[in-house]
Queue: 3 jobs
Job 1
Amino acid sequence: MEKRKRKKNFNRKINQHFLKFANSIGIQENVSFSWARHSFATIAILSGVRFEVVSKRLTHTSVETTMLYFKGFEEETFQEINDKILDFSKKTDANDSSNLTKHLL
């Protein structure tokens, strides 16, 4: 039980520092470590990073766990993303993909 309490306190402290940092750079949302993990996974997958790579970075034991992040996405959302990628690729040189993530968001 003591181990669980220490972990909970540690997570609370991390989230407090994370929120303080986010606020200091102008992010006014209620962010947490979990929020950051989900955001990382979403941006990475939507930017074309393979599920296997994202899964490994998140230290998931299986790719299926990572795929749960996207279970709720509607087909329309994926179509919208595909349309944006196609539109973006028409507007930029094939070698200049530095603004891809910004364009998608």
Job 2
Amino acid sequence: MYEELKNSMQPVMEMAEINKKTAEKLIALQSKYVNEFVSSSMAQMKALTDIKDPKEAMEAQLKYLKEIEAKIADVAQQEVSALSEAKAQLTVLMEKNLKEAADKSYFAEMEKMVKNFTKK
């Protein structure tokens, strides 16, 4: 009975593992981005304090914002990729389990169980 329960819970455990790995990947991406953002912001503030010409400061700020925009787009793309990969893995897992469920005749098993139960 323990083995049957363990086997029936296997797909749930596999789903949990896929979700865990995806969450870890997303958290790592966000953490890396936040660290880079804080570091680049501090570097930008230091660079701006050294600039005396307003036009040059504006150009430096515009360049910095474009770099930030590119980093945000890159992180977003990596996150979408991680989520798409998880979706594909979960889809394969669900299709496999649904096929296995269809291959097993649960109705026949239920009928046997009911017959055995009513005989007692």
Job 3
Amino acid sequence: MAQKVILVDDLDHSEGDDVARREFPLLNRTFSIDLSDANQQRLSEALAFIDEVLENAREVKQASRAKKAADASPRLRGYTQTDVREWAREQGLDVPARGKMSDEVVEQFIAAHPDAGPAAGPDAADDSTGESAADHAEASAGAAAPRVEAAVPA
């Protein structure tokens, strides 16, 4: 038994022998629609108009949020903002629950915790001894590893 397929125009819902599946490109995509010859002509004219408009238009790009630059020299070393807030509250200082703390509070914390100050670099001299951090590392490494000598029979 033979079956007859009747295509219906997707725009005006008309049936006819001139209705066919039509593909068309738009915005780097391909679309497909069933259209009569008359509606295909209308679509072609509309696409030609859109092409003309796009040739004379400029693309607008969405504004992006500016990314916050990472702080090259962190203010605190080995402590978190939460540590500073807890310390400040213990000292009776007024600090916000969230957000930026005043520079004065951070400076007071660093004064109370000298090890929290920003490092000047791995070979920076220590103010109290004149030795660098590398010297401290060598000395502690030498002290931590006991020297072992093997006796060789003569």
